[in-house]
């Protein structure tokens, strides 16, 4: 698995070989942001919804610095820091009226917090986890409304129904093939549609919930590849790469999904989204003199290292090929 530092090295290698000084200055400015910025993701959900286990299934947190929020108002929010990626695991509601009130206040404060520049919100994306096996939807609805009403970036809210294998108390789940039978699939889609309609009617937003299970010691996750794709797709350009570089090393976590293709469909979608976002991060708002062929070379390398089956850009130069050769081994374990 390639690290984010390895990705920065690739970009830095390109910049060193750019001859146009205006292009070079622009890319060096972008590189500075890539090096020093962080992606911040908040995970909220009721007690027992599986927030922490979802984090462990999605991301490689083996070397994470784990602690609590540095400020008094966020003292109950666990913080996983992994270089350029920070995950905020909020406490679940359901521990009592006073404690839940304090937890809600902490969540709202964090959602409204600004980054060090004061120009942007600290949190880049919010993942709301709903327990699909729980018939009581009151807590989930409250959390969804809390996030929607407190977080300015409505397009960066993901709602995911966890423990979908237990949505009908374990019935109609094919444990041998680790997937839902048709009757359970219909039930899960109806449950997701119900949440979607309520959000649309209450908040006039169109959010499409998805369902998954984070897995356990005896069962691999289901539809985690779809959840990971939506996280990457909904993040800003460079922040998506920060997340992708922390993807779990356990490829088995991403093999079973509703495409029934061993994870290949969502892998391709994730790779395509990353290519678009990296291209946008490196040149999307750059000077007019930033030449098209430079961006084509950048994307050529990313196509190569992500091991996509086609090339849509210009022929890779010798310099780019050399860079590709030196980093390709890291990407072969991407999925």
Please report which band the strand proportion falls in: under 5%, 5-15%, 15-25%, 25-35%, 35-45% or over 45%.
5-15%
Strand order, main sheet: write it out.
2-3-4-1-5-6-9
The secondary structure category is alpha/beta
Quickly count the helices: 11
Question: What is the general shape?
Answer: globular
Quaternary structure state of the chains depicted: single chain
Highlighted features:
12% strand, 46% helix, seven-stranded mixed sheet, 11 helices, alpha/beta, single chain, two-stranded antiparallel ribbon, 335 residues
Give structural notes.
With 335 residues, the protein is of the alpha/beta class. It is 46% helix and 12% strand. It contains 11 helices and 9 strands. The chain has helices at residues 4-16, 21-36, 51-58, 97-112, 138-150, 182-203, 224-234, 237-244, 264-283, 292-305, 318-331, and strands at 39-45, 65-68, 78-82, 85-89, 125-131, 157-162, 173-174, 179-180, 210-211. Strands 2-3-4-1-5-6-9 form a 7-stranded mixed sheet, sandwiched between helices. Strands 7-8 form a two-stranded antiparallel ribbon. A hairpin with a 2-residue loop joins strand 3 (78-82) and strand 4.
Describe, in short, the structure shown.
The chain is of the alpha/beta class.
């Amino acid at each position: 698995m390639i690290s984010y530092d390895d990705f920065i090295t690739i970009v830095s290698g390109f910049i060193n070989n750019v001859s146009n000084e205006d292009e070079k200055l622009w890319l060096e400015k972008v590189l500075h942001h890539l090096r020093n910025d962080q992606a911040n993701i908040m995970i909220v959900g009721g007690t027992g919804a599986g927030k922490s286990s979802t984090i462990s299934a999605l991301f490689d947190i083996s070397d994470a610095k784990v602690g609590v929020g540095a400020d008094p108002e966020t003292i109950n929010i666990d913080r996983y820091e992994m270089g350029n990626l920070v995950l905020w695991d909020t406490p679940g509601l359901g521990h009592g009226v006073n404690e839940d009130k304090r937890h809600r206040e902490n969540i709202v404060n964090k959602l409204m917090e600004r980054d060090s520049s004061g120009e942007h919100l600290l949190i880049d994306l919010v993942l709301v986890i709903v327990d699909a096996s729980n018939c009581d939807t009151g807590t989930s609805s409250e959390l969804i409304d809390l996030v929607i009403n407190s977080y300015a970036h409505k397009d960066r809210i993901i709602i995911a129904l966890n423990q979908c294998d237990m949505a009908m108390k374990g019935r109609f789940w094919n444990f041998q093939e680790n997937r839902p039978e048709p009757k359970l699939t219909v039930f899960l889609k109806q449950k997701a549609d119900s949440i979607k309609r309520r959000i649309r009617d209450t908040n006039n937003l169109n959010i499409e919930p998805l369902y998954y299970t984070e897995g356990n010691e005896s069962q691999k996750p289901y539809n985690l590849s779809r959840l990971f794709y939506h996280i990457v797709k909904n993040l800003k350009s460079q922040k998506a790469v920060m997340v992708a570089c922390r993807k779990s090393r356990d490829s088995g976590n991403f093999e079973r999904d509703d495409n029934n293709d061993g994870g290949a469909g969502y892998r391709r979608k994730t790779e395509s989204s990353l290519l678009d976002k990296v291209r946008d991060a490196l040149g999307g708002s750059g000077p007019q003199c930033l030449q098209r062929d430079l961006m084509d070379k950048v994307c050529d390398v990313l196509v190569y290292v992500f091991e996509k089956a086609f090339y849509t850009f210009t022929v890779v130069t010798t310099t780019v090929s050399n860079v590709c050769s030196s980093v390709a081994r890291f990407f072969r374990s991407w999925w």
